[in-house]
Amino acid sequence: MPRHRSQWSDVWRQFASHRGALAGMAVFLFIILLFTLGAFLHDVDPQKLDIRAKNQLMSWEHPLGTDNLGRDMLAQIIAGGQVSLAVGVTAMLLSLLVGTLIGVLSGYFRRLDGPLMRFTDLFLALPLLPLLLVIIMLFRDVLRSAFGPESGIFILIVFVIGITSWMQTARIVRGDVLALKEREFVLAAKSIGTPSRRIILRHILPNVLSPIMVSATLGVANAIITESALSFLGLGFPSDFPTWGRLLYDGANFMTLTPDRVIWPGLAISLTVLSVNYIGDGLRDALDPRIRGR
Hints:
Helix content is 73%, strand content 0%. The protein is mostly helical. It contains 13 helices and no strands. The two termini are 22 Å apart.
C-alpha cells in the first residue's frame, strides 16, 4: 500500500531539490548563528577604543583588524549584524502586515478595490529614496528625544522601510484573492451565510500563505539593503551604534589605508541578501503546485 505524503512533505521535497535554496538556507542559518552566538565567542566590546592599535590588519588579537579609533572590526560587524537583521525582520513583518491587509480587503470587497489600488499606485509612483530621506530628516530628532538616540532611530528606520515596501505584497495577494473568492469552497461558504470575516480567516488567508512567505524572504533582503543605504548616506543609526551600512560609511574614507573595513561589512551584506534571495526562489518553486507536482 503506497504511503500517503502530506502537502508539506511535498513542499520540502521540492525545496530540497533546489540546490541554490539549500545553499542559501545553510548560509543564512550560519549567519544567524554567527551573529547570535558570536558575541559570546568573541566577547570584545565593539565600542572599546585603543588608539595604540588603530588601523591594524588581521591578527590573532583582532581577527578582522581595527578601525581608525582602534575598535575591533569583528566585534563591530557582529553587533552591526544583530541590528541589521533585527531591522530587516521587523520591517518585513510590518510591510507584510500592511500589504496583506490591503491586498485581502482590495481583492475580497469590490467597493474597496478601486480606492485601495489607487492608494497603492500612489505609493508606487512616489520616488522612494527622496521620500525616505525627507521622512527621516523630519522625524529623526523628535523620535530621538522621545525614545533615545538608538531606540528612536530604530523605530523610525523600521517604520519608514515598512510603509514604503508593502505595495508588491498587496498586489500579489490581491490577485490571488480575486481568483480564490470565485472558487467553489468560498461560494459554498457564502451560500450558507458564513460571515465575510470568517471566510477570509478560514478560507482566503490559508490559501495565500505561499506568496506571503515568498514576499517575506524578499522583504528581509530589501529591508537590509535599504537600511544599509540609509546608514551609508549618514542618515541611519548614530556613529557609535554600528550597523553594516554605517561601517561601510565610516570605512569609505579609509579604503586606501585599510580596505578590509569596507570588504567585510560589504561581504556580510552581500551574503545575507544573496542567501535570502535564493531561499525565496526555492520557496516560490516549492509552493507552486504546478511545479511541485513534477
